[in-house]
Amino acid sequence: MIYKNLSKNKILIVTVVIFSFTIQFVFGQSFTDVSINHWAHNHINKLSQNNIIGGFPNATFKPNDSVSKVQMIVMIYNLVNRFDNVENIDRVVERQKYILDALRVDVYAPWAKNALAYALDAEIINYEELNRFFSQGTQTNATREEVSIYLSRALNKGKEYSKVIALPYIDTELIRASNVKYIDFLLNKGILNSNGDGYGRFNPNNTISRAEIASMLSKSFDYLVDNSHKNNLNNGINSDNRNVITEKKLTMKSGVIEFIDNNSILIKFDGNETKLFQRNTDVEIFVNGKKSIFNQLPLKQQANVTFTDEYKLVKIETTTSFIPDIEGIFNAVTPNVGFDLVVLRNGATNNTQTLKAYHRTKVQLDGANVSLNQLKSGDMIKLKVSGQDIDEIVATSKIKTYQGILQKRVESLQKPLITLNISGESITIEAKPDVRVRRNGGSNLVTNLKVGDVITLSTEYEKAVNIQATSVITRNVGRIEAINILKDSSSITILNDNKSETYNIDSSVYVKVNNIEKDLYDLRLDQIIEIVLENDEIIAIESRDDLNRTQINGTVSSIDIGSKYFVLEYLDRSTNKIVFKTVYYTNNTRITSSLAQVPISIYTLRVADQVFVIGDEKFNKFTADRVLLID
C-alpha cells in the first residue's frame, strides 16, 4: 500500500498594487505600419475586417508588440463568437461572477470581462490559469505554448485528441507533456507550422507577437469555415469570400411543453404544429430567468424554444405563470369531513394560518403532481385561494438530494458553488458557507473537493447544507516516458502495453523508491513505477527494483486453485503472437485490485479477468511475486 494521507496547510499573504487602464482597439481599418508586403498583411486584414482583431486609434497595428494573456482571450472570443453566436453574455458573466470578482477583473481589465467570462464558462481557461493573467495588477504576456493551449481548447470543444503524438520540433522537451496534445492538434489543422521558427524550434516559453497570433487566428478562421461546410451547417458564411461572414441562423418559436422523457421533449407550437426534439446535453435551459435542467421544466407551460435548421435544440426559456396569493411554510394537514385543514406558518413572523383543501385542490411538489399527504413539514408552499378555500398548492421540498460527479473546482468558502454532472446534465447549486462536508469518511472544507469526486448533496431551501464526497481510487503500472516538474503543476507520462498516458501530479504526491520516502526529482526516465490515482490525478508513486523484473499483462484463461496456478493469455510483442503462460503463486504472492485499498484473495480472480503480473522464471517455472487485477 503506497497511499499516504498528507495534509499541507499553506497561507499565502499577497500585497497587490493595482494598476487600472483601458485599451481601445479599432476594427475594420487599414494600418500604416503593415505594408502590403508584410508577411502577415493578409491575415491581419482578414481579421480586422471581421472584427476579430483591431488596431489602435492612430491607425497602427504594432505587429511586433507582445500579446498579453487577456488580449489573447479577447481575440479568441471574437473569433468563436463569429461562428458560435454566443448569446446571453450577461448570463454567462453572472455565472462566472464569483471568479471575476475574486480576481478583480473589473479593476484590472473591465473591457475584457465578457471574453474572460465566456472563456471560463466554455472551459477554455480555468481559475488557476486566469489567476496567472495578472501580476500585481499588471497583465502578463502570453507565451506560444499558452496561446496553443487556449486556442486548441476553443476549436476542439468536446472532441478527443490524438493518443500517439510525435512533435517535429527539436525543443519538444521544453513543452510540458500534458500540453503536447494541444500543439499536435493545431499542427494537424495547419494552424501551426512544422518548421517552427525556421530553425526547427517551437520556443514554447517565448512571448508571441501580434502578427504571429494574427496568423494563427486567420488559419483558425479558415479551419472553422471549412469545418462548418463539411458538417453542412448553415452558419451564413460566404465561402467565396472568407473575409465576410454573417450571423448563423437560429429559429425561436413559442409553444407549450407537452411531454418530457429521458431522450426527448415534445413541444406544441402556436398554430398546432407539434415537434419532437431529441434532448442534448449542451442545450441552455432557463426557468424564471435562472439556469435549470430538463427535469425541472414544468409541463403544460408556455416556453420560448430556440433551435437550428436541423432541429437541434439550443435553448428553452419558460416561466411559471403561477402567481400565489399566500406564501409560507407547510406545517401540518388534518383530515376533516369533506375537506382537509392545511396549517401553514409565516417564515418571518412564525404566525400560523389554517385553510381548507378539497379533493379538487391541485397540488404540485417540485414540479410533479402529488397528493396533499406527500407534503412534509418545512416544505415551502405557495397557495392560490378563494377566501379560505385552497385552489392550488405549489410546493418546494425543504430537503432535496442530488447525486452526481463534481465538474468544477469549488473556489470560494463564502459563496461555494457546486457544479455537478447529473445524468449528462450540468447543474450548479449554491452551498451555505457553513455547509457540512465529509470526503472519504473525514470532515473537510468544501474547497478541498476535487473534480471527479462522486457527490451526494442535500439541500435545504435550495442551498446545500450537507455534502458526502468519495474520490475514485485507481492504480496503474508503467515505464516513465516523460516527467515535467514545475512550480505550479507537474505531470508524468508512462508507457504501459504500448499505450502512453499523461497524468497530472497532485502537489502533495507521496513518492517512495525502494521503500524509502523520496521526491519527484529522484525519479528517472525508463524507470518502472506503480501509481495511485485519485480522480485521474496521481497522489502516490512507488518505484521498486522488483518492478523491473519480468512483467506480463494479459487475460486469465483458466485457474487451478488446488495446484496454485492460473494460465495467462497475452500477446508476445517480440513475435506478435498469442502466448499462454502458466503462472504459479505462493502464500507470499501479493494480489491486489486496481480499485481496492487492501490485498484481495486469489478466489477473487475469474476467467477473462485482465491482470498485470510481476515475477521470476526459474527452471521453466514462472512464479508471481505480484498480481494486479485491472478492474
UniProtKB/TrEMBL annotation:
<feature type="domain" description="SLH">
    <location>
        <begin position="27"/>
        <end position="90"/>
    </location>
</feature>
<dbReference type="InterPro" id="IPR051465">
    <property type="entry name" value="Cell_Envelope_Struct_Comp"/>
</dbReference>
<feature type="domain" description="SLH">
    <location>
        <begin position="166"/>
        <end position="231"/>
    </location>
</feature>
<dbReference type="Pfam" id="PF00395">
    <property type="entry name" value="SLH"/>
</dbReference>
<dbReference type="InterPro" id="IPR001119">
    <property type="entry name" value="SLH_dom"/>
</dbReference>
<protein>
    <submittedName>
        <fullName>S-layer family protein</fullName>
    </submittedName>
</protein>
<keyword id="KW-0677">Repeat</keyword>
